[in-house]
Amino acid sequence: MKVVIAGAGFGGLRLARQLNNKAGFEVTLVDRFNYHQFQPLFYQVATAGLDASNISFPLRKVFQRSKNVRIRLAEIRQIQPEQQQLLTDNEVIPYDVLVLAMGAGTNFFGNAQLEEHTFPMKSTVEALQLRYRILQNLENALTVSDPAELQRLMNIVVVGGGPTGVELAGALAEMKQYVLPKEYPELDFSRMHIWLLEGSGKTLSTMSEQSSARSLKYLEKLGVKVKTNTLVKDYDGKTVLLAEGQEPIPSATVIWAAGIKGNVPEGIDKNMIARGNRIKTDRYCRVIGQSNVYVIGDLACMETPDYPQGHPMVAPVAMQMADLVAGNLKLLERKSKKGNQYEFVYRDKGSMATVGRNLAVVDIPKPKMRLGGFIAWMIWMGLHLMLILGVKNRFFVFCNWLYNYVTYDQNLRLIFREFDKPKK
Amino acid sequence: MKVVIAGAGFGGLRLARQLNNKAGFEVTLVDRFNYHQFQPLFYQVATAGLDASNISFPLRKVFQRSKNVRIRLAEIRQIQPEQQQLLTDNEVIPYDVLVLAMGAGTNFFGNAQLEEHTFPMKSTVEALQLRYRILQNLENALTVSDPAELQRLMNIVVVGGGPTGVELAGALAEMKQYVLPKEYPELDFSRMHIWLLEGSGKTLSTMSEQSSARSLKYLEKLGVKVKTNTLVKDYDGKTVLLAEGQEPIPSATVIWAAGIKGNVPEGIDKNMIARGNRIKTDRYCRVIGQSNVYVIGDLACMETPDYPQGHPMVAPVAMQMADLVAGNLKLLERKSKKGNQYEFVYRDKGSMATVGRNLAVVDIPKPKMRLGGFIAWMIWMGLHLMLILGVKNRFFVFCNWLYNYVTYDQNLRLIFREFDKPKK
User: Fold this and answer.
1) pLDDT tens digits, B57-67
2) I need a labelling partner for B74 at 20 to 30 A (CA). Which of A330, B138, B155, B257 fits?
C-alpha cells in the first residue's frame, strides 16, 4: 500500500513512525522543511533561550535505517484525487492512501498590511527572524535621536492571548527584566513596554477559569501590559491601531499570534472546508466523501457530539489521530477484518502553559486538577523535555534551561541574518 | 583617551578586553555582527558538526559589566583621519586613537563569475549558507532524471589547499563516508566526488614538508580527489574550468578558499596598501605616516627582517598585536614614559590543521616537532576548545564533538533558510 503523508509535524511524523518498517507499506513523507519542528518551544527560540537546532530534528535521521519510508523536501501544491496523486513543486507522487497532515498557518484574516508588517511565529525560521528583529531594533535604538522613534523601537506588541502569545510575552518580559539592562546600559528600559492584546475577555481562554486568572496575575507580575477585549484594527509597520477611542500603540515589533487557519492544498472540494479553513472528516479521519484521503491534526475538522466545532488544534489530538489512522491502515492492509475500522475518540489529558520562571499553569481533567506556580512549571518542563525528539536535543535543551535558570541569562542573542543575497 | 576599535575578531576583541575597565580609556567596539566569530571552526558549521551558536559569542555578553566599552553593530564605511572620526552606516564616531582590526575577506581576484557562483567561507553566515546548499543539492538530486545533472549535484569542489580547504574537504569526505549513504539510500554515493584543487605543488604549503605530505596522505585516505598545480580559470555555476588540457569538472557546489584580501576601509592612502590589500604599518602597528591609526591582525602588513612580506594571516599574530597595542596605549595614557613604545616581535608557537577523525598535523617550532595522526588530533581539539570564548560554548562544542566521535554522525543537518522575504 503506497501511503503518502503530507506534513511531518506531530501528526504526520507520528504516523510515519508507526508505519516505519511495517510490511505491506511504502511510505513517502513530504515536508517543506527537512526537519520536524517542536512548535511548543518556538517562543524560546525567538527570545534567544534555545537554539533553533535544539527543537528541530532532521527527518532523515529519524528514518536512517528505514526500509520503507522515503523523505521528500518539497512544497505541496495540489492533490488530484481522481488520478490518486499528489503534486509538489518538483514531483508527482502517486498514492493509494493520502494523509494530509499539513497543520495550520497564521491567519491574518485577509488584512494584507498585518501580513506584511507583523511577525508570525508558526515555524522555526519565523521564530529566528523574530529574534533577529528584536535584537536589531535595540541596536538601532542606540543611534536614533528622535524620542518618538526610540519609543517605537522599544515597544513590543504581542497580539493574541492564547498559549503562544502568553508564553512569548512572559519570556520577553523576563528578557527585559534580567538581561537587556545589563547589555544595553545606554538605553532606559523603564521605557520599554511589552503589550499583550487579546480580543476576548481573558488570557488562555481555552483553559480553566482558575488557570486563566492565574496567567493574567503572572503576566502582570512580570510587568506585561495586558489589554483584554482589545481588537487590533490595523498596523502599518509603525503604529498599532485599536478600536475607536483606544490609544494607538507605536511599535516597531508586532507579533501576530491571534489566529491560525488550516493549510488546505488545492484540489479539496470547497464544500469540505469548515470554519478556520479546516477540512471536514468523518470519524475515521477520512475526508467526507473520499475513501482514501485522510486528514489528521490541526487541519482536520471532525465534528463529534463532544466537539461539535472540531477538536482543539493541539499536538495530542494530532498524535492520537495518527495512532488511529495507523491502526486502521494496518487493519486494511491485513484485510483480515475488512471494514472493521475504529472511530476516533479523543482522550484529553489536559493542557498547560508557562509564563515565566517558576510560573506556569496546568489543567488536568481526570483527576480534575488545576495547578499553578513552581509545581506546574516543573511539570511543564518535564513533559516538554520528554516530548522533544532525540536524546541529544533533550540533553541540549536541558542544559540550556539549566544555564538560563542559574544565570538568568538566555545568551543566544545572535543575529545570523542572510545579509547577502543567497546563492542560487 | 577615546579608542575606537573597528572589528571584533581575534585582534579587535582581544584589544577591547585588554582595555576593559581600564581607567583613562573610553572604548567603542564596532563590528558588522553582534558576536565574535571563531573562524577556525567555520568548516564544522558548514558540514553540520557544530551549531553556528557554538562558535559565536555575543559581544554584549563579553562586556556585560563593562564601565568603558560600548558596542556598535554597524558596517564600517570610511575613516577620516583629519577629522579623527570613523563613519559607519548609521553614525559618525570620533576617536583619539583608531585601531583597524577588520581582518580579511575572500579574494576572487576580480573574477565576477567566481564571486557570483562560488561559496566563500569567511563568516558564520556564509558557512551556514554553504551547509544549506550542500543539503539542498542532495534533496534536489533525488528528483532529477538527467544523469549529467545528477553528477553535477553530487560533485563538490573545494578550491584552495590551505587549512580551510583541507579541513573542509576532509570533513565533507567523512560526511560522504559515514552519514550520507544512510540518509539518502536512493542515491549512489560512489558517484559523489569531493575535489580539492590547489594552485601550488602541495597542500598546506605554509606548513613543514612533513606535515604537508601527511595532509595529502590523509586526504587521499579519506577519498578526497586532490589535484595540485591546478588553477581554476572560471566557473559559471555549472562547470569548473581548469587550465588548457585539463578536464573540466561539473559541479553545483564550489567552495572558494583560494585567496583572501584585507578589508581596507575608504580613507586609507592608496600608497599604504601592500600586496593582498593589506595596510603597511610600522613596528608599532601604526599606519605608516599616522600617529594615531593602528592596524592589527590580517589587515596589517608589517614588514620585518623575519617577515619581509608581512606576518602570516593567523589568529596568534592578531592576538599578539592586540597585546602589544594595548600595552603601548597604556604607556601613552600614563604618559610616565612618553615615547617609550615597544616594537612588535612575533612569537610563532606553531601551526596545525585537522583532516579528519584521528587525523591532524601539528608543527611546533621550539622545540622543533612535527606531529601527526591521533596525538596531533588531540592537541588540535584541546587547543581549539581552550580558545573558544565562553564556558557554555566550550561545553557544547565538546558535547557535539563527543557525540560525533561516538556516533560517526554530525547530525545538525538542518536547512533554516529564510524562504520568505525578511520583514523590514
Assistant:
1) 999 999 998 99
2) B257
Q: How many angstroms away from the CA of B84 is the closest CA of chain A?
A: 19
Does A162 share its domain with A51? no
Give per-residue pLDDT as tens, A361-400: 999 998 999 999 999 999 999 999 999 988 889 999 999 9
Q: What is the CATH number of the domain that holds A19?
A: 3.50.50.60
Interface contacts (A, B; CB < 8 Å): 131
A279 and A175 in one domain?
A: no
Residue length of chain B: 424
Q: Is the pTM of this model over 0.90?
A: yes
- Rg over alpha carbons for chain B, rounded to the nearest Å, is 22
Interface contact flag, B52 A143, Cβ < 8 Å: no
Alpha helices by DSSP H, listed for B27-76, are 42-46, 59-62
- Domain termination residue (choose one: B237, B258, B279): B258
Shortest CA distance from A186: residue in chain B: B70
Full residue range of the structural domain in which residue B204 is found: 112-258
Mean pLDDT (whole number) for B230-254? 95
Chain B partners of A140 at a C-beta cutoff of 8 Å?
90
Q: Whole-angstrom Cα distance, residue A89 to residue A73?
A: 10
- Given A26, A91, A149, A167, the catalytic residue: A167
Q: Would you say residue A420 has pLDDT above 50? A: no
Select from A204, A230, A258 the last residue of a domain: A258
Q: Answer yes or no: are the C-beta atoms of B223 and B130 closer than 8 Å.
A: no
**Are A79 and A20 in a shared domain?**
yes
Euclidean distance between CA atoms A2 and B223, whole angstroms: 38
Does residue B420 surpass a pLDDT of 50?
no
Which bin fits A311, alpha (ψ -120 to 50), beta or left (φ > 0)? beta
Nearest to B58 among A129, A411, A420 (CB): A411
How confident is residue A413, by pLDDT bands cut at 50, 70 and 90?
Answer: confident
Distances (CA, A) of A350 to A42, A85, A364, A370, A374: 21, 38, 4, 10, 18
Task: Clarify whether A333 is annotated catalytic.
Answer: no
Give which of B278, B285, B298 is closest to B328, Cα–Cα.
Answer: B285
Q: CB burial class (10 A; 0-12, 13-18, 19+) of residue B266?
A: exposed
For residues A133 and A248, membership in a common domain is answered with yes
Strand partners, A85: A80, A94
